[in-house]
Specification:
With 398 residues, this protein is α/β, with parallel strands linked by helices. It is built from 16 helices and 15 strands. 47% of the residues are buried. The structure holds uridine-diphosphate-N-acetylglucosamine.
Length: 398
């Protein structure tokens, strides 16, 4: 599209209005490829898909599922619960090493573009699918829009950080969740005209579904009481790939939980390693990966969440649930400076004092970051329309 001006947007420095010529002779549809591959992508694309459907304007989309996550529990359930339509294409990439997965996604998406190109490739988040499709699109001469651009953990041992750096290096339109992300992009030399501070699509999905959460089946079976259990999620290689590290962490959590039940929905990656452990502490209840509405029900009613995920720290911030991040860095610092999240680290000795503060009722309360208000999908679509209008104006003038 080559569209970096003639629009009306908030780039984190207040709204600026720049005139777009009104004369339109030829109606051009903007075809956007929306890429989704892994579980955390699905709640990020849902509001964008719904906003395009509601708008019925000159934007059409092709939903492309890379197949990075393929189990019903990691993928299908999310499409059903969040009302995401069937993908137009499923690339069937599946599991494998980072390079195998990247290669399979790139080959699949390249074939799609060779058969029928699009105008814009919209990627979300930081998973392997995000980076792989951005590279393919850019090399095919198609502009890239990145939703959740500009966030950085500074930890290059995480595959997600490499995915963020590579994706943002070739992105044309940066949709951001925070002032800090805007700053990181400016520091990296990105022009203000390409940065669009729109808020957080994951929070759109949270707020949209907050009144239709579902109690998981096991909740009553295990006699769980709202506000009186802990939820943990662990799947980062650093925490789960060595069974002995996983065991040490789970023991530390169990010992400091003071008898509270600890609910542990396990990611397939974690389950493989969990199966190698002799015995888990009695208070830890392992359950399958939960569908979205059940998982958020669990989180909303928990006393606290301990996690190595990034997205969950955003959800706990909005829900006001205490959160301990079992990592040494975060790419979402606003969840710590404004929200209920604390960076506990990967050293298990940090867990007991944090749990003591929690159980003594001394956890901080937080605030919701700006623009995490449920309207981000609509903002993104509005900007896409303005970019489209500017493109159309240029086409007509040519
Ligand atoms: C990926 C993302 C991570 C995200 C996480 C959420 C990257 C680099 N990482 O990590 O940022 O937080 O998803 O879930 O993209 N598996 C299944 N069924 C599935 C999917 C995976 O059994 O549907 C198993 C496979 O054995 C696979 C392993 O889980 O090898 C890991 O999956 P993979 O997609 O490689 O990375 P995640 O750890 O899920």
């Amino acid at each position: 599209m080559g569209l970096s001006s003639s629009i009306d947007v908030d780039r984190g420095k207040g709204v600026r209005r720049i005139q777009v010529a009104q004369t339109q002779h030829i109606e051009i549809m903007l075809t956007v490829d929306i890429i989704a591959g892994a579980r955390p992508n699905f709640m990020k694309i849902a509001p964008i898909v719904h906003a395009i459907d509601a708008d019925q304007s000159s934007i059409e989309y092709r939903l492309i599922h890379t197949g990075q996550h393929y189990d019903a529990k990691m993928s299908g359930d999310f499409f059903t619960q969040l009302g995401i339509p069937e993908p137009h294409y499923n690339l069937g990439a599946g599991s494998g090493s980072q390079a195998e997965q990247t290669g399979a996604i790139m080959r699949g998406y390249e074939q799609v573009l060779q058969t029928k190109p699009s105008d814009l490739c919209l990627v979300v988040g930081d998973v392997t699918s995000t980076m792989a499709c951005a590279i393919v699109a850019k090399k095919a001469g198609i502009d890239v829009a990145h939703v959740e651009a500009g966030i950085r953990s500074g930890d290059r041992t995480m595959p997600e950080e490499i995915n963020r750096l590579v994706t943002d290096a070739i992105t044309d339109y940066f949709f951001t969740t925070s002032a800090k992300a805007n700053e990181s992009l400016r520091t990296a030399g990105i022009d203000d005209s390409a940065i669009f501070f729109v808020g957080n699509t994951m929070i759109d999905t949270l707020l949209k579904n907050i009144d239709r959460l579902r109690k998981p089946d096991f909740f009553d079976e295990q006699s769980l009481i709202s506000g009186n259990y802990i939820v943990i999620t662990l799947h980062r290689p650093a925490n789960v790939d060595k069974p002995e590290n996983l065991a040490t962490m789970l023991n530390a959590i169990a010992e400091s939980a003071n008898g509270l039940p600890v609910i542990f929905p396990v990611h397939p990656r974690t389950r493989k390693n969990l199966e190698q452990l002799p015995q888990l502490p009695e208070c830890i209840h392992v359950v399958d990966p939960q569908p979205y509405l059940q998982f958020i029900y669990l989180v909303k009613n928990a006393k606290a969440v301990l996690t190595d995920s990034g997205g969950i720290t955003e959800e706990t911030t909005v829900l006001g649930v205490p959160c301990m991040t079992l990592r040494d860095s975060t790419e979402r610092p606003e969840t710590v400076t404004m929200g209920t999240n604390e960076l506990i680290g990967t050293s298990v000795s940090n867990i007991p004092p944090a749990m003591q503060r929690l159980l003594a009722g001394q956890w901080k309360s937080g605030q919701v970051p700006p623009k995490w208000d449920g309207k981000t999908g609509a903002r993104i679509v509005e900007i896409l329309k303005q970019l489209q209008a500017a493109s159309q104006t240029r086409t007509n003038a040519a």
